[in-house]
């Protein structure tokens, strides 16, 4: 048995698995560009998300999301905590944060700055869509992040030019 960064006991088998909770924004971003496979491979995880928000009729990539085998649905238990967090972030982000807390997740995927800030204050490890791409590059799944970021931006993903330049600079692509 070993302890992880948060002091949780882990056996060697479970140590390879990463429990990730995701807000819809990250999943939708990858679904829009038909790269859910990259999300699953980069994280090699058991993912839980706010399913209603992700699979609503008319959402881009809905069919691909419904067919993704690595996405599992769980309901939020503490609706009061969700309501409290909705004072600061939207419902889907609040649900993702509460699920991450309830399942003692290793990682929370969320892009919204306010949601990321709240999650970090609550002691959660947080990563956004660009972070998943950086991880994919680090793991050798992709050679360059910039073409995928460009595709994400064309599909409606928003990232400030300042943050994008810094991100690409850190990856040696700017």
Secondary-structure-based class equals: alpha/beta
Calculate the terminal CA-CA distance, rounded to whole Å.
42 Å
CATH superfamily: 5'-nuclease
Strand content: 5-15%
At the third CATH level, what is the topology name? Rossmann fold
Q: If you compute it from the alpha carbons, what radius of gyration comes out, rounded to the nearest whole angstrom?
A: 16 Å
- Compute the average pLDDT: 79
Silhouette = globular
Q: Give the number of domains.
A: 1
Q: Please mark out the parts with pLDDT under 50 across 5 or more consecutive residues, or reply none.
A: 1-16, 45-57
Determine the oligomeric state from the structure. single chain
Q: Could you give a short account of the major beta sheet?
A: 5 strands, parallel
At CATH's second level, what is the architecture? 3-Layer(aba) Sandwich
Question: Percent range for helical residues?
Answer: 40-55%
How many extended strands? 7
CATH class: Alpha Beta
Explain what this protein looks like in three dimensions:
With 174 residues, the chain is α/β, with parallel strands linked by helices. It has a single domain (2-129), classed as Rossmann fold, CATH 3.40.50.1010. It has helices spanning 12-15, 24-32, 36-43, 51-54, 62-67, 79-85, 91-102, 113-121, 129-138, 146-154, 161-170; strands at residues 2-3, 9-10, 18-22, 45-49, 71-73, 107-109, 126-127. Helix 3 packs across helix 9 and helix 6 (79-85) crosses helix 7.
């Amino acid at each position: 048995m070993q302890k992880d960064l948060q002091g949780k006991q882990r056996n060697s088998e479970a140590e390879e698995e990463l429990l990730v909770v995701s807000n819809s924004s990250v999943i939708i971003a990858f679904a829009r560009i038909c790269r859910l496979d990259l999300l699953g491979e980069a994280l090699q995880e058991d993912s839980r998300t706010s399913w209603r928000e992700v699979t609503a009729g008319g959402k881009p990539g809905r069919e691909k999301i419904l067919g993704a085998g690595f996405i599992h649905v769980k309901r939020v238990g503490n609706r009061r905590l969700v309501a409290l967090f909705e004072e600061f972030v939207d419902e889907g982000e609040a649900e993702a944060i509460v699920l991450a807390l309830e399942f003692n997740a290793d990682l929370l995927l969320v892009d919204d700055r306010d949601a990321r800030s709240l999650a970090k204050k609550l002691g959660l490890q947080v990563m956004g869509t660009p972070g998943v791409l950086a991880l994919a590059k680090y793991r050798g799944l992709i050679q360059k992040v910039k073409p995928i970021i460009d595709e994400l931006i064309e599909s409606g993903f928003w990232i400030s030019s300042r943050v994008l330049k810094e991100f690409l600079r850190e990856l040696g692509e700017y």
